[in-house]
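Progress note, sequence design subtask.
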């Protein structure tokens, strides 16, 4: 679970570096070693309850020091 959190934090950090129009989800799949795009989608749905597209529209998560996700919208 710790590795999953570290991976997810890295994904969030990478997404924050990009504008919405710059995000290529297939690049994210490759960069973070997901087997395919459905694997990434399932991972995000499990962790934050949103698909990549839903998250991209909101971009409203922060991770507190305890590893909990919080929406700031």
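Output:
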């Amino acid at each position: 679970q710790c590795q999953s959190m570290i991976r997810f934090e890295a994904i969030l950090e990478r997404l924050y570096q990009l504008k919405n129009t710059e995000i290529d989800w297939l690049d994210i799949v490759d960069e973070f070693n997901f087997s395919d795009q459905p694997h990434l989608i399932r991972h995000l749905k499990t962790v934050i309850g949103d698909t990549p597209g839903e998250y991209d529209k909101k971009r409203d998560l922060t991770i507190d020091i305890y590893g909990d996700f919080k929406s700031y919208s």
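The chain has a mean pLDDT of 80. Work on this subtask will continue into the next period as scheduled.
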